[in-house]
Amino acid sequence: MHHPLNTRPLFAHRGVAAVAAAAFALAAAPLADAQAGAPTAAAMPVAYPAKGQSAQLQDKDKYQCFEWARGQSGFDPMQPPPAAAQPAPTSAQTTTSPGSAAGFVRGAAMGAAVGELANNDAGRGAAAGALGGAAIAAVRQRQAAQQQRQQQAQQQQQSAAQQQAARGQQKATFDRAFAACMDARGYAVR
Asked: What share of the chain in percent tops pLDDT 70?
């Protein structure tokens, strides 16, 4: 509830601002997908009827050359690029894993030894050591998981770049085939 004496605007709260930003991003995503989808006519090579071909003949020639170029290149510029594979979501580990259990045991053993030597109280030392060992194991485990996520992201970026390069090569082959077909039919192609 907004109190009348509170001078901060309602959207000044970080949580509300984050939700608003996420909603905007989700609403804008379909628009960006539509813009990045199938190529427009501007993406195709332009053919000028150099021999005065009629509009009907131009349409027929464009269609036949489009089909021929698609068959020659194996590329259909009207199809959107394949969607990139999304990483499988990983759940946060809330249970004790073997790594943290081993850290717990190692820490307890070390703590018991230190506690016995320092205060003649192995129990307290074991408890402190167990907690410290488990904490260290958990930190190492999180670091390993983060490193694995970074490696996966890097591999996905490389894969996406390779797919984009391959698609660009296929489109160039399609464009050359389309231009050759239209040129052979008496069009000036650019």
From this structure: 53
